[in-house]
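Handout, page 2. Input:
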Amino acid sequence: MEYIAPLWSLTELHELIDRALAEDLLGGDVTSRAVIPQGTQAVAVGVAKKPVVVCGLSVLPYVFHRVDPTLEIKTFVHEGDAAQPKDILFRVSGLVHSILAAERVTLNILQHMSGIATLARQYADAVKGTKVRVVDTRKTLPGLRAFQRYAVQVGGCYNHRHHLGSGVLIKENHIRAAGGITQAIKRAHDHAAHTLRVEIEVTSMSELKEAIEAGAELVMVDNMTPEQVKEAVTWVNGRALVEASGGITLETVRGYAEAGVDIISVGALTHSVKAADISLLVDIEPEEGVS
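Output:
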């Protein structure tokens, strides 16, 4: 797959890793110190236990080297590769105390990002051959948005607005507070930057028609059936982009795509994804002269 640039800065990356390590290593690794002699060398490999789209490998060296800069890391797959059970994803060698100190944080990040990429690939495959883009939402874990949204891209899907300042999206509470659909759209055109497209959420054909007539440039049809969405797309007739949202699953996404929408948003890509099954297996290196 083509290169996808990380969505985080080095500062964000270091802050995430430092918080995670501080959380996990509070008081140190008392078990490893108690049962493994100091100076013991080891080689460990990261192994896929189930089929997975790999994501997060670019973060691994930063985690391991934050614990111990002398650790040596080698990867055997690339971001976005589809790995099978028993495939070796990476190898790390050096002091076993250091490897085990970084193990949980490393796997947490890799399993979470790979879980998102795996699910995103399934959604991307499900709508293949249609014009639609499957996108994520802002329903992300606090502090992890850039990492989760990168994983969505690695899996083959796309990102919705990154934060509240990156797009106008008028939802139910905005409409209530503004006094109605027409009033909300008018105020958005009057006060938002001209570079921002005005999107509004609607839940019925009557709301859709009012939104289009008021000048919406993108309409999010929320919690409609594929048949209702197809009717909405037909009525809009290219005057605005149409986004389908609300409870769309892997089983139903194809139907929404074939209804003719431009975008399908799926919060489940980030808010409730299952972690990928990846293990770290350690082998102790024999001392010199010992066979």
